[in-house]
Specification:
InterPro entries: Ferritin-like (IPR012347), Ferritin-like_diiron (IPR009040), Ferritin-like_SF (IPR009078), Ferritin_DPS_dom (IPR008331), Ferritin_prok (IPR041719). It contains five helices and no strands. It is mostly helical and 170 residues long. The longest helix has 30 residues. The protein binds fe (ii) ion.
């Protein structure tokens, strides 16, 4: 191993996470397409923004792996969903994915603590904290869907909320 290189196990672990970030990027693009198809322009706009964030997460992680002198090995992941029973179900899946990503980062932190790879722990801090925000927003979205379950025509108020979310990011 060259000086300062990631361990083989860490290289594989982080490479897989880069693939997961790109998977999530495509997942968000797919959800945005469905939202647009259903004339939910606020949702579509926010989901596109999120997709860009996910792309940045993958890029930043890949650059870190490269900075350590390792290779970025991207495994082939699962197919991207493109159809949902309802918009609410689509956002339930979004929340599930964010929970899965959160758990993955917690496991990465466990691994870098065990390896005493402190640089990787410090680098991953951004991702761990970002997941707090992702889960909070997902919870907020699902709460809004739960409020309109008996009044589906109120979906436009939920769509308006996504413009707010999108504006918050700028
Ligand atoms: Fe991400």
């Amino acid at each position: 191993m060259q000086q300062n290189q990631l361990s083989e196990a860490m290289e594989e672990r982080l490479g897989r996470q880069v693939a997961e970030e790109y998977w999530t990027e495509q997942f968000y693009i797919s959800m945005s397409n469905e939202a647009e198809h259903q004339n939910m322009h606020g949702m579509s706009k926010w989901l596109r923004q999120e997709a860009e964030d996910e792309h940045m997460h993958g890029r930043k992680l890949a650059d870190y792996i490269l900075a350590r002198g390792n290779h970025v090995k991207l495994p082939h992941l699962r197919p991207i969903p493109s159809q949902w029973e309802s918009l609410e179900k689509m956002f339930v899946e979004l929340a599930e994915n964010e929970r899965r990503v959160t758990e993955a980062y917690n496991t990465h932190i466990d691994a870098c603590v065990a390896e005493r790879d402190h640089a990787t722990c410090a680098f991953l801090r951004f991702y761990v904290l970002n997941q707090v925000e992702e889960l909070q927003v997902a919870r907020d979205i699902l709460f809004r869907f739960s409020l309109i379950r008996n009044a589906p025509y109120m979906i436009m108020t939920v769509d308006r909320y996504f413009y707010e979310l999108a504006a918050r990011k700028k």
